[in-house]
Specification:
Two copies of one chain form a homodimer. By secondary structure, chain A is of the alpha/beta class. Chain A has a seven-stranded mixed beta sheet. Chain A has a single domain, classed as Rossmann fold, CATH 3.40.50.10260. The mean pLDDT of chain A is about 95. In chain A, about 45% of the residues are buried. In chain A, helix 6 links the parallel strand 3 and strand 4. The interface between A and B is medium-sized, with 30 and 30 residues. Chains A, B: This is NAD(P)H-hydrate epimerase. Chains A, B: Pfam families: YjeF_N (PF03853). Chains A, B: Keywords: Isomerase, Metal-binding, NAD, NADP, Nucleotide-binding, Potassium.
Amino acid sequence: MSLRYLSARLAQQIDNELMSAAGAFSLDQLTELAGLACAQTLAKVYGVEKYNRVLVCCGPGNQGMSISKSLFGYKPAIYMPKVGSISRLHTQCKNMSIPTLGEDEESLRTALKSSDVILDAIFGFSFKGPNRAPFDSALSMISASGLPIVSVDIPSGWDVEAGNDAGFGLSPDVLVSLTAPKEGVRTFRGQHFLGGRFVPRTLEEKFGLNLPIYPGYEQIVDITEATRKL
Amino acid sequence: MSLRYLSARLAQQIDNELMSAAGAFSLDQLTELAGLACAQTLAKVYGVEKYNRVLVCCGPGNQGMSISKSLFGYKPAIYMPKVGSISRLHTQCKNMSIPTLGEDEESLRTALKSSDVILDAIFGFSFKGPNRAPFDSALSMISASGLPIVSVDIPSGWDVEAGNDAGFGLSPDVLVSLTAPKEGVRTFRGQHFLGGRFVPRTLEEKFGLNLPIYPGYEQIVDITEATRKL
């Protein structure tokens, strides 16, 4: 029985069920747990001594903020190609003295020079191309930096089902899928983790997810080997 | 500089500030993180092989539910001396097939015989005696069981400032204080952990908390030695 890759529709359906009256999760809860999982993934692969300065690239959602505040011991900085209204999680980051860079290209250029690793949380599984400004140049600059990249759920610029067929997506070294991996990342050949240790058995069985067993108290599980076989 | 013990008033004030517009935390977030910390404490002291069956004793709040669903690998069961309305967290526990016992004494008696360890989350820091029915007999029965007890924040029946002066409180083996230890637990001499890794430095400095450094990615830090010295 192998791990199931999710279509866009199924990924959305599982999210909806988790947050339905029956599933009973709040968005705050899921975001918090996913944030811990992503931060833990980065910490597992890129040790704090050598990779202290993390550039967390955030999209319209709140996931990047949640990860930033969970990067215990690191020096995160937040970059948003398009700064929106200040969310509660963004305020929490400010209270923790995590800086938010300007949204212009020059800020990103400077930040890339003084970062050790990229946490890519720009686009999630609902991204649909084409890749419009200012995100197009942001992705190009991040790729050109040559820094190691940890992507969340779907590498930014990839289609949730077609993957990086369009070619403008990031090429991360590490991927942390949330809840279950998506169709689009079947071809991903880097180090692959799974996070989102909150899916009830009933939901797992209903959708035949065949999730792996998380070790001990970890919020993540390494699925590199499991996905290589698929 | 030693760890500060909190009065009832100060504990409430810190909670209020965390959840104010400036602090920006939601109750869901804080409950989730505290739940992970408490579950991790139990797992650290009472290994899952020998102490698989955890009786989680819950009060009017939601903290016990949050702990129950984070007891990865264990077989938790929920006991509430007084069952209220079903919260979202309680629904999540039901979805995870965590049973909730009847609120009668016979259910508790039976459950105590088939449990390996107690997680005491009945009363928090806002408890004020006297200890009324049905909580009085529940505490007596839990004490009489002789099972090891992990208490959350304040052992149930203790006053947040006067401690167990009234004498009817539980005598836990392990305590996990949340945010910072409270005045009432100065005399506690068991194994003592601190959880609540979310207090921003500014708040810590404002109130002179002198919090210890949490190791690695842990949600808890052992403060047994630190509090012995105070």
